[in-house]
Write a structure and sequence with these properties.
The complex is a heterodimer of chains A (365) and B (531). Chain A has 13 helices and four strands. Chain A is an all-alpha fold. Chain A starts with 10 loop residues before the first helix and ends in a 16-residue tail after the last helix. Chain B is an alpha/beta fold and 531 residues long. Chain B folds into two domains: 234 residues, Rossmann fold; 215 residues, 3-Layer(aba) Sandwich (Rossmann fold), CATH 3.40.50. The chains are: A mainly alpha (365), B alpha/beta (531).
Chain lengths: 365, 531
């Protein structure tokens, strides 16, 4: 079999896969299943991440996950937990005044409360790690630029905002060094002012220069739309916003009339889609080497959705697997293992990423 | 092709207009240089063409801009993007994307160019500018010259008919500047592109210009052949100064022409080489090595700065000049080596005592300023230095007389702001003074003033080190030169010996008359003596 060509997978495919995994994590507290999901994310990241700087961020998310678990467990110890159960360590309760009734400081530490904290923290950590996996597999900027044409301008604004942070850090370092070269106000306010004024001036100047640069290069050119068309898209988008707003409110507020709930929400979404299509049609813009959407993309996205769906099914039909009690040893079912295996498939299905730096051409080899 | 007609422009609160009745016609395939003193309105003139003035600057603009006879003055810059390409002073500030390839495609994406055309043009432009090897590189990891070429390429992909550049070479070392200018001339010759560029460093661009548009300072514009305009221009490169002094007519514009004319000057008595005055060593550094992660920024460098001496630190962009300066000042940690100023090591002192030993003016001098008026800045500097009130103000008055104390530091001209920062740094009376790229954005007159200030400080017993690319400035002020490459010292010695030996660091007078000549005033003095 011929090896497949290396290419970057469409960022949306990775995000759908990761969101599927994260959804699965929200639906269960089974520690084994959660750990397996983390393992799946880690394996796929190891197998398919590129060598760009943003691809190295996965480790940070793992550490963040570890911190979340630790904090949850420590909170369980400090604020005590349920009465009864197997006492592990009989800590004295710190007496608190009347008005904080309901909060207990320390107190007997039970295996059950410890485990509940552990499971809970593990669930949150798994969600964070899944999102981290998407971040290190797909270039976040390319994700922003693959938004539909109608949202292009907002996408660019976000991309620029992301680039500004490293620049701000640069300018902060420079100003800090420069201010040490002169004397001046030494009070706390004075020092802050000495630091902030030049940094902000610099940031303002940079953003003006960037705006000028983007404008001279054609950013925000008016398309061929007539004023009437422009008004129509504006009205459509406004209407959609109202529909979605009212619909969401009605869904959440059970006293609102039912016809305002789901139907209104649906109408809002439909109008929004129509608005985006019409406004996208009037945008005269093209994409340079857009990421294609091929079979691999569909398979990766579907595998993520499948994991979510299977775990959702387990949560409905096999409660003991999805939410094992803290009294007995949790166990896994065949379905849960199958879900994990499906989630693992992108490690094989997705093509290898391209190298960030093209290797030197080998001549005459 | 493009025509400016009776352009008037004034800022709303200014008593005099910046541009007052300007007419300019740009023909297909010519390179026009906009010249004039600092602050005379060069960038404003360029902005009128691109549409950034008055939209980004404020002020009132009247008159008309015609493209092939049709008025475009009411079109915003984005609607002119397919005709007029603009590269600003700082190319990095204008980059929108991350990588070279995406940046080249960005303008075409905005114009809605078809994907296969985009692909083809990106490849063509990569080849045209000789940056194909950089295609997937991160824009911020490129050198200054490469960034400038990518910025030019990024506007070229939309196939504009006019390219407008604001000081494209002022931040570049001589070799990178030559690369950029060679690229521009190639575009003019091969593609018939019209180029309009503003530049202070005339010695670099005059040989390439077809016409010069000189802003006279009273709102007027003189457009003519370079030789005609330069005969009376207030800003001229050394080669023209030499031609004027020798009475050549027409004036030579390139070193090659001038060399042929200069045959008669060769029997002048060579300038006397002043013996090296042995001032005491104020700063002594041995075996300095500075690393930045894996990268060695400065390797095993020895520097000795003597009182009464001005030393120039030269080298390519990224050769470690700034790092060396910050290491000598003591803020930057070194890996090994020693620095001694007045018997103590500045790296071991706190910031206040360090300031009293070594003064440093960084590349972006404005980073030091944070108050609303010149007076407040001076008072803050005095209070921190513990000197008598008025010390800083007196210094400033000596460096740049006549600055209004109520002005906002941001409103000062580039040269005045530099003088203010210099005065603030000198308030603590350090005897060693380090300047990092002080000539950026200065015109010839401001540079002459800066040279006089530096000379004065040296005569007062200061030891001065200046990092710069500007060979003409070095020729006019430095006693010694240290050349760095890849963080190592490659040559060091008297200015006359070092710059004469290097083809890229030789000033124009040396190129024309050969060593030991350095400056126009030496030649003039020798001619007078011979008379």
């Amino acid at each position: 079999m011929r090896t497949r060509l290396a290419r970057d997978l469409h960022p949306v495919a990775w995000w759908v896969w990761a969101i599927g995994l994260a959804t699965a994590a929200t639906l269960t507290t089974n520690p084994f299943l959660l750990l397996l999901l983390v393992a799946v994310a880690a394996v796929v990241v190891q197998a398919r991440r590129s060598d760009h700087p943003w691809a190295r961020s996965f480790r940070l998310y793992v550490w963040l996950g570890v911190a979340i678990v630790l904090i949850r467990v420590v909170f369980r110890i400090v604020f005590g937990g349920v009465d009864g159960g197997h006492v592990l360590l009989d800590l004295p309760t710190v007496p608190l005044p009347e008005w904080v009734a309901g909060v207990r400081l320390l107190g007997p530490l039970t295996v059950e409360s410890l485990l509940a904290g552990l499971y809970d923290g593990l669930r949150l950590a798994t969600i964070v790690i899944c999102i981290g996996a998407a971040n290190s597999l797909a270039n976040p900027k390319r994700l922003l630029t693959s938004v539909p044409p109608a949202l292009y301008e907002i996408g660019t604004a976000l991309v620029v905002a992301v680039t500004v942070f490293p620049q701000l850090a640069d300018s902060a370092r420079r100003v800090r060094a420069a201010q040490a070269l002169r004397g001046g106000a030494d009070g706390r306010v004075g020092r802050l002012r000495r630091f902030l004024v030049p940094v902000l001036e610099d940031a303002l100047e940079r953003s003006l220069a960037l705006a000028a640069g983007m404008d001279t290069r054609g950013y925000g050119r008016a398309g061929t739309a007539t004023p009437a068309e422009r008004r129509l898209t504006g009205a459509l988008l406004l209407g959609a916003l109202c529909g979605i707003g009212v619909g969401t409110y009605a869904v959440l507020d059970s006293t609102a009339p039912r016809w305002l709930a789901t139907p209104m929400l649906l109408v809002g979404v439909v109008v929004a889609v129509v608005g985006m299509v019409t406004s996208g049609r009037r945008v005269q813009r093209s994409r340079y080497r857009p990421d294609p959407w091929r079979l691999e993309e569909s398979l990766v996205a579907l595998s993520g959705l499948a994991v979510g769906a299977v775990v959702w099914w387990i949560a409905g039909n096999d409660v003991l697997v999805a939410h094992p009690g803290v009294e007995s040893m949790p166990y896994l079912s065949v379905e849960a293992l199958a879900a994990v295996l499906i989630g693992l498939s992108p490690a094989v299905v997705a093509p290898r990423p391209r190298h960030a730096l093209a290797p030197a051409l080998v001549v005459g080899a | 092709m493009i025509e400016l007609r009776d352009i008037h422009f004034a800022y709303d609160d200014a008593p005099t207009p910046v541009l007052d009745g300007i007419d300019l016609t740009l023909e297909e395939g010519e390179l026009v240089l906009v010249s004039g003193r600092t602050g005379v309105g060069k960038s404003t003139l360029l902005g009128v063409l691109t549409g950034l003035v008055p939209r980004f600057s404020g002020g009132t603009l009247t008159g008309d801009v015609l493209l092939d006879g049709a008025s475009i003055i009411d079109l915003p810059p984005r609607e002119r993007a397919h005709v007029i390409g603009y590269v600003g002073q700082d190319p990095v500030a204008g980059f929108v994307t991350d990588t070279v390839e995406e940046e080249l495609a960005y303008g075409m994406e905005q114009l809605g160019t078809a994907p296969d055309t985009m692909r083809r043009r990106v490849e063509e432009t990569l080849d045209l500018l000789g940056i194909a090897g950089l295609r997937s590189r991160d824009l911020r990891s490129l050198s200054g010259g490469e960034q400038q070429r990518v910025a030019i390429g990024a506007v070229l992909t939309t196939h504009p008919r006019l390219l407008v550049l604001d000081e494209p070479t002022s931040a570049l070392d001589p070799t990178a500047a030559e690369d950029v200018l060679a690229t521009l001339t190639r575009l003019v010759h091969d593609l018939g592109l019209t180029v309009l560029l503003a530049e202070h460093r005339l010695e670099r661009v005059v040989p390439f210009a077809d016409r010069i548009a000189l802003l006279t300072g009273d709102g007027g514009l003189r457009v003519d052949e370079p030789a005609t305009v330069l005969a009376t221009s207030p800003v001229v490169p050394p080669i023209i100064e030499l031609g004027r002094a020798a009475g050549w007519s027409p004036l030579p514009l390139s070193v090659r022409e001038a060399r042929r004319r200069a045959r008669g000057l060769h029997d002048l008595a060579a300038p006397p080489e002043l013996p090296a005055t042995g001032g005491e060593i104020l700063l002594d550094a041995h075996g300095l090595t500075v690393t930045h992660g894996q990268h060695v920024a400065v390797r095993d460098v020895d520097v000795a700065l003597r009182s009464g001496h001005v030393t120039a630190l030269m080298g390519r962009n990224g050769s470690g000049k700034s790092t060396l300066i910050w290491t000598l000042q003591g803020s930057r940690d070194r890996r090994s080596g020693s620095v001694a100023v007045d018997g103590s090591d500045p790296a071991r002192l706190d910031a206040a005592r360090r300031r009293a030993l070594v003064g440093l003016v960084p590349q972006t001098a404005a980073d030091l300023l944070y108050l609303e008026t010149v007076d407040e800045e001076c008072a803050a500097a005095d209070a921190a230095a513990g000197g008598g009130p008025g010390t800083c103000r007196a210094l400033l008055e000596r460096l740049a007389p006549g600055i209004d104390p109520d002005h906002h530091p941001r409103d000062l001209s580039e040269g005045q702001r530099l003088a203010l920062v210099l005065a603030i740094v000198l308030t603590t009376s350090p005897r060693v003074l380090l300047l990092d790229e002080p000539t950026r954005g200065l015109d010839y007159a401001a540079k002459r003033q800066l040279a006089a200030i530096v000379r004065d400080l040296a005569d007062d017993g200061h030891a001065v080190l200046i990092a710069t690319h500007d060979v003409e400035f070095v020729a006019s002020v430095a006693d010694d030169v240290v050349v760095l490459a890849e963080g190592e010292v490659v040559s060091t010695g008297r200015t006359r010996q070092v710059v004469a030996a290097s083809p890229s660091y030789a000033p124009q007078v040396t190129k024309i008359l050969g060593p030991p000549w350095l400056r126009v005033d030496e030649v003039v003095a020798a001619m007078e003596a011979a008379r």
